[in-house]
Amino acid sequence: MNQLESTLDTLLKRLDTATQRLETVEKALASGAAAGSAPAAAAGSAPSAAAVTEFQNLVDQHIVPFVALSKQLAPELAQQVDELIAALESEKQLIALASNSKKPTQDALVQLIQPINLHAQKIEALRNANRSSKVFNNLSAISESIGFLSWVLVEPTPAPHVAEMKASAEFYTNRILKEFKGVNQQQVDWVQQYNAFLGDLQKYIKQYHTTGLTWNPKGGNAPSSVPASSAPSAGAPPAPTGAPAPPPPPPAGYLDDNKPKKPAADMSAVFSQLGKGEGVTSGLKKVTDDMKSKNNPNKSSVVKADDLKTTTTTTTAKAAAAPAKPPKFALESNKWCVEFQKGNKNIVIADTDPRQTVYIYQCQDSVIQIKGKVNAITVDNCKKTAIVFENAISSCELVNCISVEVQVTGKVPSVSIDKTSGCQLYLSQESLATEIVTSKSSEMNVLIPGATPNDDLVEIAVPEQYKTLVKGNRLITESMSHV
């Protein structure tokens, strides 16, 4: 009955939102009739006021039920969506300010979006602080796509920017659907609500902010800042009891362009780079032929399992001197966690079980060997690291990695490579039927056995460039090959 009551409550809220939108349209039509034949532009702030109202309608229609679902799934997810609600409230305030103000300078605009930026940073911090969470895919979907908030800085076509951020979330939302479709309808509804919001946000932007955030050329000067939203907007469910305290705000100077940039999902990097305008590419260096990895004569070869020094799972992993965080090598419930290892080439996971998963995070210059059969393997944010495993029941996934090598000595149904630069995948004779899925990645090679055991491995490059043609009402896409 609780599930039925929750569904009915959500439907009633959506019906109430639809009624409010109809009343808004009715008032607008009545106002237009009273104005006689006056042109629409003479209405002054009416279109801008409609833009603010419609933005709030989007939040009421999609984000309010989205927040309710999140609070039912996990407290850490509830805390993250509270920050999302606050960020959207700050963005609504910016839209309202724009309706009454002249467009400020780019530097002033970057200052105006600081409240949005702070909430986005907390969203990213909550994801990083809960990597062992059962809803880590949900946390990551929001974190990876939170850059959609920066559409207010994008010109002249902000809507495609939101579409790109929606695509960034799909790596994780697809995993949620794959895991919970037919098992947990709340998770499926969660994904559908978020996708629907980002889709309708694109339509909203095309209608009210076609070439960028709409400012009022007859308005006054914009203030230097917008107040930060510290609480969810009206209509949002209250914060869950016992939820952990939010992370502290980032230190001053976080947006300093001289500091190292965060990954693309970090809003500080998004906003500071967009604030440079056309100068964003001025600091890029030209890549010469000798800098390309394919011309490197010292390119590493296959990592052989026999060359690895064998230890047991109880062996303490050696840590590199003074790492940013202490190295971790432990079995937590059914998940092996190998994190923050630097220069450790003797990591062996020997006592495995088919129900277990392996999560390898922020390792560098290390080698991890996985014996036996596990359920799934995830390699996240690793650099110059090699993974050798025998069998995986589900998949092996690589995301946000640089210069990694993966060797399959047994079988694995699929290998997923996302946002990775430089990947050498070695397949055994048994694993030639493996499905390889790639997205937003480069410098990928698959090496397969030769015709005989004495032959060298055959190296095949994974296509990175594609050609698409319109054929009737369909798109035909094929990989480009340069001979």
At a glance:
By secondary structure, this protein is α/β, with parallel strands linked by helices. The chain is built from 9 helices and 14 strands. Helix 5 packs antiparallel against helix 6 (136-145).
Characterization of this structure:
With 483 residues, the protein is of the alpha/beta class. The chain has two domains: 6-24 and 45-239 and 262-277, Adenylate cyclase-associated CAP, N-terminal domain (Serine Threonine Protein Phosphatase 5, Tetratricopeptide repeat, Alpha Horseshoe), CATH 1.25.40.330; 299-479, 3 Solenoid (Pectate Lyase C-like), CATH 2.160.20. It has nine helices and 14 strands. It has helices at residues 2-34, 46-73, 75-99, 106-112, 114-129, 136-145, 159-180, 185-208, 267-274, and strands at 328-332, 335-339, 347-349, 357-361, 367-380, 386-399, 402-408, 414-418, 421-426, 435-439, 442-448, 458-461, 466-471, 474-479. The strands form two sheets. Strands 1, 2, 3, 4, 5, 6, 7, 8, 9, 10, 11 and 12 form a twelve-stranded mixed β-sheet that branches. Residues 28-47, 231-266, 274-281 and 307-323 have low confidence and may be disordered.
Shape, principal axes of CA atoms: globular
Secondary structure category = alpha/beta
Please compute the radius of gyration using only Cα atoms. 26 Å
H/E topology pattern = HHHHHHHHHEEEEEEEEEEEEEE
The CATH architecture designation of the largest domain is Alpha Horseshoe
Seen as an oligomer or otherwise, the chain set is single chain
The total count of strands amounts to 14
CATH class group of the largest domain:
Mainly Alpha
Main sheet characteristics: 12 strands, mixed
The CATH homology group name of the largest domain? Adenylate cyclase-associated CAP, N-terminal domain
Q: For the record, give the distance between the C-alpha atoms at the N and C termini, rounded to a whole number.
A: 64 Å
The portion of residues assigned to helices is: 25-40%
What would the average pLDDT be, to the nearest integer? Answer: 78
The percent range for strand residues is 15-25%
Q: Supply the number of structural domains.
A: 2
Q: Low-confidence segments, ≥5 residues, pLDDT <50?
A: 28-47, 231-266, 274-281, 307-323
Coiled coil: 1-28
Pfam families: CAP_C, CAP_N, CAP_N-CM
Biased composition (Low complexity): 219-234
Organism: Cavenderia fasciculata (Slime mold)
